[in-house]
Amino acid sequence: MEHMSLMFQDTRNWPLVAPLPSYGRGRELPGGRYMSFIHGDGIQDVVITGENGTIDGQGDVWWNMWRQRTLHFTRPNLIEIMNSTSIIISNVTFKNSPFWNIHPVYCSNVVIQNVTILAPADSPNTDGIDPDSSSHVCIEDSYISTGDDLVAVKSGWDEYGIAYGRPSQGITIRRVTGSSPFSGIAVGSETSGGVEDILVEHINLFNTGFGIHLKTNIGRGGIIKNITISNVYMENVRKGIKISGDVGGHPDEKYDPNAMPVLKDVTIKGVWGERVQQPGLIRGLKNAPFTGICLYNIKLHGATKTRNLPWQCSDVSGAAVEVSPSPCSELTSRQQNGTCSSSF
């Protein structure tokens, strides 16, 4: 593979696929979705690879339609693999995706390694890799620089994700480097099927909005638990760590406002940051506080040697050990949460 381009056509002739059942509609607009450039459904033992060749989505035409609000349906991903198992994606450069770059959804046993993903910083919603309601996924040894989250673990949207009920679990993300105006490593905000057993390690982030961002919202439901993030370096970042329960919109007005997400048992350790404007913000929900938040050995230096914006926290419990600057009072005692102290 040397260079493959997605040739733009009139969208009236672009094939459509049905909305994902765990989303109930297209992510951007009601109804179906424009089919991804590389699309697979119900496949197994498939390898997408090339000797560092390039797949170019020529997304600027799609981005302009999004900006001009002339789209009729949700933009296509560059790659979407559905209901599939034993997939390897490696040794390819992906650039200028119209929408999300690599989207394995309802899949298991997926390896994405040694890929480069590129899009301009102002390109809308060009997430790098979004494992979605998938299990046993490994993302490693890759460079990602896009206009949205570099890696975002998802599992469905509000009442549709709750009804579909398939979590993302057993996901490893390691040795990833990149930059984004949004998040480096994210969970959410679509987490209605649940997200659990996620391991993130050896990450390097530069010129990024949020280094680590766990995000959900009222109406999502779902349980986010057993998240371990370690050995992260970040530089020139707006917020180092953000864990928030008020992020992301809703597919329609049918969502259940009583469907509260549960977020618990998150360990973040071994994080070093330079030129971090604010070390952290952790905002749980009044009726669903975040619990078991464990911070250990975290040093996030400010934009100058003399000024650090403070941590901000609410509706959260947990502990912090060897965290600088000092975290909020809700996270200052090792003894507040037994599981937190044992994880150290």
Automatic annotation (TrEMBL):
Q: Which UniProt keywords apply?
A: Glycosidase, Hydrolase
Write one Pfam family the protein is assigned to: Glyco_hydro_28
Enumerate the InterPro entries for this protein.
GH28_Enzymes, Glyco_hydro_28, PbH1, Pectin_lyas_fold, Pectin_lyase_fold/virulence
**GO molecular function (one):** polygalacturonase activity
Q: Does the keyword Signal apply?
A: no
Please name the GO terms of the biological process aspect recorded for this protein, alphabetically. carbohydrate metabolic process
- Which PANTHER family does the record match to this protein? PECTIN LYASE-LIKE SUPERFAMILY PROTEIN, PECTIN LYASE-RELATED
Q: What is this protein called?
A: Probable polygalacturonase
The organism named in the record is Olea europaea subsp. europaea
Give the taxonomic lineage as stored in the record: Eukaryota, Viridiplantae, Streptophyta, Embryophyta, Tracheophyta
